[in-house]
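Final report, Chapter 2: Outcomes

The project's central promise was a pipeline that accepts a single protein chain and returns its three-dimensional structure in a standardized token representation, suitable for archiving and comparison. That pipeline is now operational. To close this chapter, we reproduce one record exactly as it appears in the project archive, with the input sequence first and the structure output second.
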Amino acid sequence: MKTQYKVNIKFFANFALPLRTLRLITFLLASTATFAQQSISLEKAIELAKSNNIDLKIADKEIEKQTVLKKAAFQPDPLQVQYQGGQFNSADFDHNVSVQQFFPLGNVTKANRQLQEELAKLAEKRKALSAYEIEKAVTLAYYQYLYGVSIQKLNKELNDIYTKFLKNAELRFKTGESGNIEVISAKAKVKEIETQKAQLEYDLAIYQKQLQFFIQTNENIVPDQNTALQYVLVQDQENSKAENLITELYQQQISVYQKEARTFKALRTPKVGLGYFAQTINTESLFQGFTAGLQIPLFGGVNTTKAKAVEIGISQSQLALDKNKMILDLQKEELLNNFQKQQKNLAYYQNEGLQYANQIIETAQKSYANGDLSYWSYISFLNQAIDIKKQYAEATHSYNQSAIELQFPTIKNN
């Protein structure tokens, strides 16, 4: 199962619907989103997803099926029952009834049982791979929602700033210190932020449904908003989880091929048969006897050829393993480079950028309130600070995506 999850965020895009309609949509979405919501941690979300996921349940059934099939390792031929009637002893009409059963010799039963055991293990490896992909998808969706919450908080902060600015603009207009253009501009900005709030509510409802989809539940699951916005990358050990999964999968496939080859080779051994018959002679009964025989596969080359074909499959699986390891190593190098780039970018905003933005806003508000800044200079400084905060949110989101991708590199199982 391949899972790809990619979400693009657009900041403060124009919303074409009327403001009244937007408010109605916002109210409905907010009511739906907040109704009976269950806030859970990332670990709990992953646990629920693995418990509820249909693909994993199907994988469990496959493991169960292969385990049950171990009971079919002993495979005797069907019981042969034969009746014969006629003049085969004399001119009288006689009867003959016989039964015969052939049983496999050698290691056929053992080979079949071992093959089924390996097939059950292969089903477990495939389930582990599916669980890995589900864990990645849930983690991406979880932090996508937290990112949407962070954008909502930024929108609220902007609303507070411009609401305060509107009050100052109205006061300056009343005292004759400024023109009506400042009031009109401030009102327009506040309305714009309210429109953006409606769109963000809509986006957040979508993110919640995406998370709910991967968890596969009817409950309104939402992430715990006390979770830190920045994803914590767990450092890899010597071999990554992805590398272990792909190695174990192909090695198990090789084990299946090996056991399958042994099964075909075991089928070249003869089968022994035991029988019983009862008949009449000159219409007098009952005469009985026993039979014994062998089934010798004179054309056993068919099974020999199948065994050789399966052994070729072993080589193919080994080559596929080598190929996927190489792809995974190259992918990890690329992901690591991107992660380090995003990490450095985020560090700037955490160590300096945000401080600059807050200082700019605080200083500009005081200066504008004291009349030391013109309206246009104030707007320019405010937009600069807001842009820094937006870039910080984007940098955090990009960092999280790169960290999660590095934690869960894509496994190309082909």
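Archive annotation: Confidence is low (pLDDT under 50) at residues 1-28, 30-34.
This record, like all others produced under the grant, will remain available to the consortium after the project formally closes.
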